Amino acid sequence: MFPFEKLLVYQKAFHLNKSIYKYIKNSPQLPSYLKNQLGRASLSIMLNIAEGIGKKTSKDRKNFLIISRGSTLGCAALIQFLASENEMAQNLQMKICSDLEEVSKMLYTMIKNLEKASNSEQKQ
Q1: Would you say residue 3 lies in a domain?
Q2: What CA–CA distance (Å, rounded) separates 76 from 20?
Q3: Are the beta carbons of 9 and 65 closer than 8 angstroms?
Q4: What is the DSSP letter of 61?
Q5: Inter-CA distances, 95 with 56, 98, 109, 124, Å
Q6: pLDDT tens track for 68-122
Q7: Distance from C-alpha of 17 to C-alpha of 46, rounded to nearest angstrom
Q8: How many domains, in total, are found in the chain?
Q9: What angle do CA 16, 90, 77 make, to 5 degrees?
Q10: Cα 77 from chain centre
């Protein structure tokens, strides 16, 4: 098992990505540019967590988690847009947005903790 697989935030991002992938796969009416953007953003959340955990310094890990959190917010904006255009059922939109918010909060906490660690590394 890889270290990132043990993280709850990664596990949640993985399941979130599966939900979004299933939505994209079952939505042939969506324009390809929206499918592409949503798919890439949701995959970016998960992949940047995994890649960031493998970095040596707190500063490097933090940068990847910041990118992951940015992708989380991008996904939320896309989901809200799709729901506003009646391209997504409201219950699915609420579930995905709730999951995105949870992942975002977890990433924010990890980023803040890494900032503290990075600051203490610099003082040494």
Answers
A1: no
A2: 11
A3: no
A4: H
A5: 35, 5, 22, 44
A6: 999 999 999 999 999 999 999 999 999 999 999 999 999 999 999 998 876 766 6
A7: 7
A8: 1
A9: 60
A10: 12
Write out pLDDT tens, residues 30-81: 999 999 999 999 999 999 999 999 999 889 999 999 999 999 999 999 999 9
Structural domain boundaries enclosing 62: 14-119
**Domain annotation covers residue 7:** no
- Enter the pTM of the model: 0.92
**Residues 106 and 50: beta-carbon distance below 8 Å:** no
- Cα 80 versus chain centre, distance: 15
> How far, in whole angstroms, is CA 98 from its chain's centroid?
12
Rounded-to-integer distance, Cα 62 and Cα 88, Å: 33
